Structures are given as C-alpha cells and as structure tokens.
Amino acid sequence: MKDIKNGDHLLLTLEALSNPYRLKIIAILHHDRQYVSQLARDLGISRPLLYLHLKKLEEAELITGHHEISEDGKAMKFYELSPFSIRLDAPVIAEAVESLTIKKRKE
User: Fold this and answer.
1) Residue of 38, 35, 34, 40 lying closest to 52 (CA atoms)
2) Alpha-carbon torsion angle 10, 15, 20, 21, nearest 10
3) In this structure, are residues 45 and 21 in contact, taking their beta carbons and an 8 Å threshold?
4) Contact 34, 40 (CB under 8 A)
5) pLDDT per position as a tens digit, 65-83
6) CB within 8 Å of 86: residues ≥ 6 apart
C-alpha cells in the first residue's frame, strides 16, 4: 500500500490522478511496462505532452522510468507502474492536513 507521507504528498498524488491521460497511462502500465514512443502512440498525444504527464506521475511516485538500450543500439525510456493502493478517508485527510503547506496568495 502506498503511504501518504504528508498533506503536500496527498495533494501531489491527487493532482497526479486528476487527469484523464494520466489515468489512461496508469491503465496501460497496469498491464505491462511500456516505452515512451509506444505510450504516445497509444494515447494519441505528442511525446512532449506525454513527458509532462509522466513527470507528474513520477513525482507522485506512482510510476518509475528507466533507460534501456535496444538490440539495435537505440536508447529507450521505459516506464512501469509502481505498486500502490491508496486509502482515502476522513482520518487520512485529517492527519494529512496537519502537515499541509498552505501558500499565501499574492494580493
């Protein structure tokens, strides 16, 4: 089970899960690891846009990426799902709020 470390981490995780493309990435990676070009094709989005989504998921520790060299010598970046199960209920939120960083708005 993925532990929510603090309030900021809870928000980071929820933000990472709040986008349909990122949910689709998790669904694809649930079946098997995948390399960037194939993920982009499967999702029908550009690689630069895909990298933005992958970065959010990596920051939330929901996926991990690593480079491999293919048989023909090409460098390929593969991503795989990190095992997780997130419990979200009132006690978890109440505990996380205690460590939440609230940024002051500029006026």
Assistant:
1) 40
2) -100
3) yes
4) no
5) 999 888 888 888 999 999 9
6) 1, 2, 4, 13
Sites in the chain below the pLDDT cut of 50: 1
Say what percent of the chain tops pLDDT 90. 60
Going by C-beta distance under 8 Å and a sequence separation of 6 or more, which residues neighbour residue 42? 28, 34
CA–CA separation, 96 vs 28, rounded Å? 30
DSSP letter for each residue of 39-54: HHHHHT--HHHHHHHH
For tokens 């199960």, name the residue.
Answer: 85
Torsion sign across C-alpha atoms 39, 40, 45, 46: positive
